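User: Hey, quick favor. My workstation is busy. Could you predict this chain's structure for me?
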Amino acid sequence: MRDEFLLNCEKEILEANLFLMCGQHEEGIQATRKVLDTIMKEIVNGIQPITKNTQPYVIAALRVLANGLEKQLDGKWKTTISVATAIASKIEFEIQEEEINETDNEEPRK
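Assistant: No problem, here it is.
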């Protein structure tokens, strides 16, 4: 992810945490939802469009990456991951699906 994107995410995360620490629960949840939405859109934009055939592999790759990232944290941030997962699961997103017509890739016959 790009430096500017990560910096903006860091700012949004700090804002969400400040809301929560000040007892402004609803504002903290909304700010958390905003940063999760931003991150999810960035990831989705990087993997689409996908095809029906590539979709299972994309799912597998994302799961392995997520599990690997979580394992590297060694149990730290477990509560944050749980809360963020609960919030993220309520965000709607759309994946663009595309069909590949193999005949379009073939050289014209003479």
